[in-house]
Design a protein that fits this description.
heterodimer, A: mainly alpha, 5 helices, B: mainly alpha, flat
């Protein structure tokens, strides 16, 4: 048997390496955003109560999706493919819900607050950061749907499902920093 | 089940963050509190949902020592942002 580096299968290891490299990108963007936010006392605070409520709901949806993802990985490890596929589809559905809520939030900011990516430093940093995250969620939805279909059809193994889970939990983890640093630091009081 | 407890803890910590946003804390204090809570939430996701607590310690060390070192280097720049307004020529 081929020895496994760090004692785990090669696919989850590859995903861990991707996750860490992507974490470098998001940490840089988040710290740059925070630097600019603190360094500008007149930084816009466009997030009223309805925006915060919606962003909180988006957070709840993502946290719930991580729960269904973890349950999907466990179901696959326990050998229950139908349950694993159901949990994976539920996770993808949460991802779609997140995208719809986020797109709605973007439309509100564009229409009501006249905020665009070229309107201000805040607009440029806000849309870059949240847009990159939303792209990750959209890719995750496609990825998880494909994995769920394959699992339902009898393909893939538990390591493959765990690998997709690592990606999805990372997307959730990044939002745990975007929500407080971008939304809560710019609440309209 | 542990997963449900982690979900509840993440939801509760998010609710605390939202409540604190309306408490008019100073920017520096609020930032420190938010970062502390977010790091706690991230640690829970990594340890339980991503199962790193069951992985060999060598994997955690190989992945997170360079990442945390990099992030700490970036944090070294952050104190400058608190005096950026004073540095402007206006």
């Amino acid at each position: 048997m081929t020895p496994r580096p760090f004692g785990i299968a090669s696919r989850p290891l590859g995903m861990w390496l991707f996750v860490v490299s992507d974490a470098l990108t998001f940490s840089t963007l988040l710290i740059c955003y925070t630097y600019l936010r603190i360094g500008n006392p007149d930084w816009p605070t466009p997030f009223g109560w309805s925006s915060i409520l919606q962003a909180s709901l988006m957070t709840l949806v993502l946290v719930t999706s991580s729960l269904t993802m973890a349950l999907g990985v466990k179901a696959m490890r326990d050998g229950s493919r139908p349950n694993a596929a159901r949990y994976l589809f539920a996770t993808a559905a949460c991802g779609v819900t997140f995208i719809v809520l986020h797109a709605n939030e973007w439309l509100h900011l564009i229409r009501e607050e006249k905020l665009t990516i070229s309107a201000s430093l805040f607009g440029a940093t806000f849309f870059t950061l949240t847009g990159l995250h939303m792209a990750h969620v959209a890719i995750g939805v496609i990825y998880l749907s494909a994995v769920a279909l394959r699992v339902n059809g009898g393909g893939l193994n538990a390591d493959d499902v765990e690998t997709s889970g690592l990606y999805w939990h990372f997307v959730d983890l990044v939002w745990m920093f975007i929500f407080p640093l971008v939304y809560l630091m710019s609440v309209k009081l | 089940m542990t997963y449900f407890r982690i979900w509840a803890a993440l939801t509760a910590l998010t609710a605390i963050e939202v409540a604190l946003a309306y408490q008019k804390l100073g920017v520096a204090l609020f930032l420190i509190v938010l970062l502390g809570l977010s790091i706690g939430k991230a640690a829970m996701i990594i340890a339980w949902f991503m199962h790193l607590r069951h992985a060999p310690r060598s994997l955690a060390l190989a992945l997170f020592v360079p990442l945390i070192t990099f992030i700490l280097c970036l944090f070294g720049l952050l104190p400058d942002s608190f005096r950026m307004d004073e540095l402007r020529t206006h």
